[in-house]
Amino acid sequence: MNAGAMATRMSVLTRALPSRILVVDDDELEAELIAGRLAAAGFEVTCAANGELALRLLDQQWYPLVITDWQMPVMDGIAFTEALRARGIEDTYVIMLSTRDASVDYERGYDSGVDDYLTKKVPDAELLARIHAAFNTLALRRSLREAHAALEQSVTIDADSGAFAAAELQGKLLAEIRRAERYARPLAVITVGVHARTTLEPCAAGPHGAGDSMLAPEVLRGIVQTIDAAVRAHVDWVARMAADTQAAFAVVLPEAGIAEVPAIKDRLQRMLRRYARVQHLAIEFSFGAAALERTAEAHMAAEPLDVLQVAEHCRACAGRAGAERLAAIQRSVASRFAISCRQGYVVDGDCPLKRAS
Predict the structure, then answer these.
(1) Is the pTM of this model over 0.85?
(2) Which of 195, 228, 307, 320 has its CA 20 to 30 A from that of 88?
(3) Residue 172 has pLDDT above 70, yes or no
């Protein structure tokens, strides 16, 4: 990809992030060389001779990307990055230029807040690719911050469970889908159903051994808290799907694809079973899942109801070839949402979502 095409693509992916880059290097010739390469690719470049000067420039203006040398007088790259992060500046991506290659050196850099490493003699193609990745990462971070800020301000919480209310689910899920489509990022949804055991075990004698419709609010809150503990904080989120005869929740997983879903489901299942056992609850859990699928029909916008219906078809399936699996696969193909068992139209084989973990 040439420099012009790269710059055009980045302008779309990064939602018009300013194309400013700060180059920090005490070697004037090296700084001029890399600044010239970046300017030729369409970036606005400023140079600083050491970390102290770079911090002064950052006080005056935000730079989305900083490319800094490691070894410099006055303040080296590590000290500069530590000072940058100590000021609470997390929305600046730092690439370290270095000739060092020991793993302990890289570990020290990452601990200080460095995001990526490059050698000084890196080819133009790799340099631009890394910069593309940096701006794309910044755009995703900003998008996630905006999404969660909006959720905190406007989302109605289900009073019984503490999850996002069912009335809010489709609107918030729509925002996640559009964000995933815009940035060509993965997105998955796992639906979790809560059921009374058909054959009551000794633990059913406990205070919460009731049917689905009679789950106490403290039980629902415990279930949601357990789900929250099993997924990524401030990224994944849980919403109530229904508040009538069955307790069901949607676990929305930005940046997760269908390949990651079985492992996430296994973790959820283990923790939920442990919660039920510790609390002496006579309940069981069922799981379904769907993930945004990349197809040639990218012009067809995916909808929240589609992903939820595909996941619920998956949850209703027993995990074997039959009418339920066929219905799930048909819905999956029609809606552009993948399910774990589908490889083309092959329907035989063990379903990873229905195995006991």
Answers:
(1) no
(2) 228
(3) yes
